[in-house]
Design a protein that fits this description.
The complex is a heterotrimer of chains A (132), B (140) and C (281). Chain A contains four helices and five strands; from the N terminus they run βααββααββ. Chain A is an alpha+beta fold and 132 residues long. Chain C has eleven helices and five strands; from the N terminus they run αααααααββαβαβαβα. In chain C, 33% of the residues are buried. The chains are: A alpha+beta (132), B alpha/beta (140), C alpha/beta (281). Chains in contact: A-B, A-C, B-C.
């Protein structure tokens, strides 16, 4: 297991910090510039969701490897209201707030593996992987 | 945070270059400042340079669309210049195509195109056989 | 305890074992063109030392922490050898040739327990040999992947047709991986050359599937976001039919039947006029 860090996600400026750290990890994993941009953007989307809809939480960034390729792993969790209908939340354009509804579905398209775990009242946990 | 993105006035146009990692409040402040400046200077066009932006997520994308819409109502053209290839690819994958926002490769080309857009607007009767500049307009 | 007996032997007879091991390796044939004797000796000495230390703490689980130095060394060595052009058996011989001297030592010193000890030692060395093989292969795979990547880049030239007009002539079948590489190269070149028009010519492409068609479209959209215009040329009738059949929305993408037509459109966009010079008599 490689380097691992946990960041708080309590205010808007935390999103900026998370983006910078994810970029650093992606550079160290030798991801290409496009892959770097994709995972950073995905992190930004999911972190904003967790902050706005989940009332904040935390973000774990980890350097790992997958089938011999270096990879970046992210786990963003909140303890908010949770999502009742995950399938519906994953559809482009669906939003419970004022956004474009591209956060979850868009972020999923940007990464190589995506997992979401949520239930009403249980908060939401989103895991993202991007490898070389 | 008291920092704000500076907006420069150049004749009829406003010029701004986003060079910091945008956080959400900064984006909201920028929208407000820009609208105020357009009205104050009666600007005809706004050039936004994003060549230093390493990512554009849906929030910043929405800010750009919002600025374009508000400016249109205030009769100012908006052009976004210098988007990095990786940023553009990511934005498309994310599902955003910034419909209706004019774009250019760099500040120089953007400025020329903005002048053209504003000029075109002033011509009452278009000349026939007039040389057309290359126009790149997303969607529209 | 079997582990300590082996460890004991490795430690006590280190220099003898080393000498005989080198002898066994030379007998098996050394690639003197790829490696010199000094390196072989120092590698062998290092591995013997590490083995002795690790074996002291048990030889049953190679995944255990105390085997890490040995694993690390074998991994490094095997990866390096796969790059340097050693054959798999040459790499495996390094570990396996230790068997002969080690077994001889066990026979001399362990008396009645010899058979058992030899069994332990052979199991250990077999596993170490397999371990080096695994990493030899992993090294090969890395090389192959790197070559594939560089081939992808070579097979997709982006050329400048005119100041401000780029073209990518795509030839051969497109998979989504290759399409992605081409498209990234194209967008990068657009920035570098400040070209406002890019022509993607797919005359040489036999088939297009949904994924590829979508990649093409995404590229056109990305180029637009950057401030450049894409023209797709050379779409064969079958591909046109496929695109319609697949329901891929081409939107307002400009398509032209040939690269020449696309080039004319590009020049017109740039306001360049071509005139034929009157012939002087």
């Amino acid at each position: 297991m490689g380097k691992r860090e946990t960041f708080p996600l309590k205010q808007e400026t935390d999103i900026v910090l998370i983006r910078q750290r994810v970029r650093k990890y992606a550079e160290e994993a030798k991801l290409g510039i496009v892959s770097q941009t994709k995972i950073v953007t995905a992190a930004s989307e999911i972190a904003r969701n967790a902050l706005i809809y989940g009332g904040g939480g935390e973000c774990v960034v980890e350097a790992c490897s997958r089938d011999g390729r270096s990879a970046v792993y992210l786990c963003i969790s909140d303890s908010g209201a949770g999502i009742a209908d995950i399938d519906r939340a994953m559809v482009d354009g669906y939003t419970s707030g004022s956004g474009l509804g591209l956060g979850l579905s868009g972020a999923k398209r940007l990464v190589d593996a995506f997992a979401i775990d949520s239930a009403p009242g249980q908060g939401t946990r989103v895991e993202l992987w991007k490898w070389r | 945070m008291v920092e704000r993105i500076p907006i420069l006035k150049m004749g009829n146009f406003l010029l701004l270059s986003i060079q910091v990692d945008m956080h959400d409040q900064l984006a909201l402040d920028l929208q407000e400042d820009l609208t105020a400046q357009i009205v104050k200077h009666r600007s005809r066009g706004v050039l936004i340079d994003i060549s230093a932006l390493e990512i554009v997520d849906s929030f910043i994308g929405r800010m750009l669309s919002h600025i374009a819409q508000v400016s249109r109502i205030l009769d100012a053209k908006v052009i976004v210049v210098g988007m990095q290839p990786a940023v553009a690819i990511t934005l498309v994958e994310l599902g955003l195509s910034l419909e209706g926002i004019a774009t250019a490769l760099n500040v120089e080309k953007g400025m020329r195109r903005l002048e053209k857009m504003v000029d075109d607007d002033m011509i009452l009767e278009p000349e026939s056989g007039e040389a057309r500049d290359i126009s790149v307009e997303a969607g529209d | 305890m079997p582990a300590s007996a082996l460890a004991e032997l490795l430690k006590t007879y280190e220099s003898e074992l080393l000498e005989e091991w080198i002898g066994a390796q030379r007998a098996a044939g050394l690639r003197s063109d790829l490696i010199d004797l000094d390196t072989v000796v120092s590698n062998s000495r290092e591995l013997l030392k590490l083995l002795a230390v690790a074996a002291e703490q048990g030889i049953d689980d190679l995944g255990a922490r105390h085997w890490e130095p040995v694993r690390g060394m074998l991994e490094r060595l095997s990866r390096a050898q796969s790059r340097q052009g050693f054959s798999p058996s040459e790499t495996a011989t390094f570990v396996f040739s230790l068997k002969e001297p080690l077994f001889a030592k066990i026979q001399q010193h362990c008396g009645a327990a010899s058979l058992n000890e030899i069994w332990n030692a052979t199991r250990l060395l077999d596993r170490l040999g397999l371990y080096s093989m695994e990493h030899f292969m992993a090294g090969r795979e890395t090389v192959i992947r790197e070559q594939q990547e560089s081939m992808l880049e070579l097979s997709t030239p982006v050329v400048e047709l005119w100041k401000g007009v780029l073209a990518v002539p795509l030839i051969g079948s497109l998979d989504s991986n290759r399409t992605q590489v081409v498209m990234e190269a194209l967008l990068q070149k657009i920035v570098e050359t400040e070209s406002e028009i890019a022509i993607i010519d797919i005359t040489g492409v036999p088939t297009v599937d949904t994924m590829v068609a979508q990649h093409l479209l995404k590229t056109v959209t990305a180029a637009k976001l950057m401030g450049a215009k894409c023209i797709i040329s050379g779409i064969r009738p079958q591909i046109a039919a496929t695109i319609v059949h697949l329901g891929v929305e081409l939107g307002d993408v400009i398509t032209k039947s040939s690269l020449a037509d696309a080039f004319v459109v590009a020049l017109r966009e740039l306001d360049v006029r071509l005139v034929s010079r009157p012939v002087l008599r």
